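2 proteins. here.
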Amino acid sequence: MKDFGFYGIDSQNALIQDIAESWGDRLQNSTVDERVQTLIAIASQLDRDPYSSPSVDEIEERIGELDENDMKGLISMIADSL
């Protein structure tokens, strides 16, 4: 798996730092379910059908802290890790 920098994600963003602290800088400590639910949370922020999951509530609440490029990079990173 590649790290946040490979995808052009701003590693100084507080949410990205929290994700890296919890899941590692390559998402290596996350489960497939957590990654999929995070994709759903990002899709919800991008005006797609919402889905709620307790394990990604904080990310869903804070996803607006990311700019569009970081969202796209995070989507790519998570998708590559599935």
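next one coming up
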Amino acid sequence: MMIGKETGEKIKYDLIVIGAGPGGYEAAIKAAHLGKKVALVEKDMVGGACLNRGCIPTKALMHTTHLLEEMRSCGELGLDVKEVGVDFEAMHERKKDVVKQLRDGIAQLLKANKIDFFQGRAVIKSSGKVAVLQQEKLIPPSEEAETALDADTLNAVHSSSTHEEMLHADNILIATGSVPARPPIQGLELPGVVSSNEILEGEGRKFSHLAIIGGGVIGVELACVYAALGTEVTILEAAGQILPDMEKELSRSLAMSLKKKGIVIHTAAQVNRVEQVNQMEQIEQAEQVNQIESVASMHSSDYFIKAKSVECDKENIQKQLRRDEGNAQKKLQCNEENTQEQTKCDEKHFLNVAFEVKGKEMNLRADGVLVATGRKVNIAGILDCDSDGGSLIETDRDGIVTDENFQASAAGIYAVGDAVSGNIRLAHVASAQGIRAVCRMFGVDSGIDMNYVPACIYTSPELATVGLSLEQAKQKGLPAKESKFLMTANGKSVISRQGRSFIKVVYEEESHRILGAAMLCARATDMISEFALAAAKGLTLEDMASVIRPHPTYAEGITEAVEAGLGGAIHAAPTR
């Protein structure tokens, strides 16, 4: 138990929060706002997976690559840019700067709200009792603390410490999030097979050809990043469409956009295994000498050989590739150009992904494989056993079982976010649930409606949905209809050279009450909140149409979409 700095009295907390991701740190701050004494325990870094290896670094990279794509076609705008290059290292440095700035901001908020932060692994011993193992870092509770605190000091790890601190509280909130899931596919332990963690942390990873197992949100977003950087990208999705949880029109429209970027998509693809193949073996299998160019470039992001003449003797090229480090740096004969960035070509391996589509086995060669098959609950090791040797709280294979108030099966223990069984695994869901759970445990009404959760995908164009689709509404027996506006008639969309894009609204046939919306257009992830508010507050098409939206903006498309349900959008041909 923590000892008070001056008085020596033992401190008991009103709330101990385990996990400093969006669900955890926002809940801790909310409890502090309610005047409660709060401890926050985190074994890694504040901000959780979302900030450090998820949402934020992904969007930082996507912002860069969106600009890159714009610049490559800026001649259409009358701009004369001779050459656009990519500094991979600088791109990831900027990503790290963004993450650190936000992480430092959270650290300062914790300090300002007098939240005691403990660095270490939490183990719930019983209701109201949490052990912090190995490391701890405490934000001094008194205002007399003089040390300036940034994210680096907040997250300092003292490996020599094996101290165990026992904390006590009336309430415990578990917000430990999730980690990348790995399906039982042979070969996923091989070098070159990575999860989103390895892609997004640190200096990033370069690839010439990236195979992505999984066509969900993580898969399609990172596919866009790498395709913009010039990487050959292939998505392998087990379901019949990418983004399996989205309605078909959205999935198909986005798939068309991805294919235009050069991304290859295989749906209904069952991955059987990943194999490591030596470079020389691949060369021996090549049927033509000019295939060596693509093979060698596939093996390394740093070293590649451009074969200028197919008349070169195959045996001579093989000998050149087997030479030692010194010879690898020399010019190859037969008019080849050698970048000389990779010096041990003969030691390099690449990967073969064996998969089936409609019973036909296919093979895909790549120098990197990203496993993007979703995430799994991260609660391993945080629950001690009860007196009978069982779990302290009820769990299933998908997480912690809670009631509508986010309370687990043991009194005083709550869980939110990705740690909860059957939950929607989104950062803003965890944040809302954390705040709502804190309000419930301390008898305050949060006012948050959890029935309408926006889902966003930050591709180009962006994709966002909220509420019910037309099909879902009909499955619930609701007399629903749908209106739609094509954004190709929207002035801002034309100015910014947007392609196929639209806004759809689902509403009750008689009352015109908004039930949901889907947007595939620029700034969809920002504008979807307008429909979330409308659905949550029971607004109608007439209510939505009564608002004047500025011109020219993307938001004008919202007016057009709801007007389409009231008799016809202004900038659309009349329906017959």
